[in-house]
Amino acid sequence: MPKAKQSKRRKKFDYNTDRKKLKKKFIKKANPRIEHAQIRNAWDDNKSTARNLQEMGLSFDPNQTLPIKKQMLLGGDKEDRRPVHVITKPYILDKLQEEASLQEKDSKTLSSDLIEYIQHMIREYKDNYKAMARDEKNYYQDTPKQIKRKINEYKRCHPQHYEAFISSLTAPEAMVQ
C-alpha cells in the first residue's frame, strides 16, 4: 500500500507565520462573543465562567442556586448553611433588571393586501362575518371566525389606521354641487 506524500516529506519550520498571533486568533474564535455590552466589559478572562457570573450576581447553575427542597415527614425545619456569595459588580444586575422591565414594542405588521381586504370587508358588511365569508373577494375561502380574527389582528397591529378608517366611514361626506 502506498504511503501518503505528507509522511515522506521532511517537516520544515515556517518562519513567516507568527505562532503567538495564531494562538490568540484560535483562542478568540473558540470563545463565544458576549452580546450584552455590560457583561462583556465586566468579564474577566482570567476567571472561570462560574466565578465571573457569581461576581455579577448571576447564576451559573440554577439547580444549585434554587435547589428543590425535599419534603420532611416530621416538622424538622433545617436552616440553609450555604455561604452567601459577595456580589462585586451589582451594576450589571441592575442594568439587566432595568432592560427586562422595559415593555417590548410589538413589531408585527400586516401586508398591504390583507389590510385592503379587511377594509373592503368592513366597508361592505360592517360586523356581518357570515356575509363576509360569502363575498367574492374572499379568495382563500376564510370562515367567519377566520375573518373576525384577521380584523381583530388589524385592530391590534394598526390601531391608529383602524381608528382613522372607522372615523372616515362614519363621517358624512359633503355633497359637491
Give structural notes.
Its main location: nucleus. Helix 9 packs across helix 10. The longest helix has 14 residues. 5% of the residues are buried. The mean pLDDT is 87. This protein is an all-alpha fold and 177 residues long. It is 52% helix and 0% strand.
Question: How would a textbook summarize the main sheet?
Answer: none
Rg to the nearest angstrom? 33 Å
What percent of residues adopt helix (DSSP H or I)? Answer: 40-55%
Question: Can you write the helix and strand succession as a string?
Answer: HHHHHHHHHH
Total beta strands: 0
Label the overall shape.
Answer: extended
- Pick out the low-confidence regions: none
Q: Please give the alpha-carbon distance between the first and last residues.
A: 101 Å
Q: Give the helix/strand class.
A: mainly alpha
Number of helices: 10
Q: For the residues shown, what is the average pLDDT? A: 87
Instruction: Indicate the proportion of strand residues.
Output: under 5%
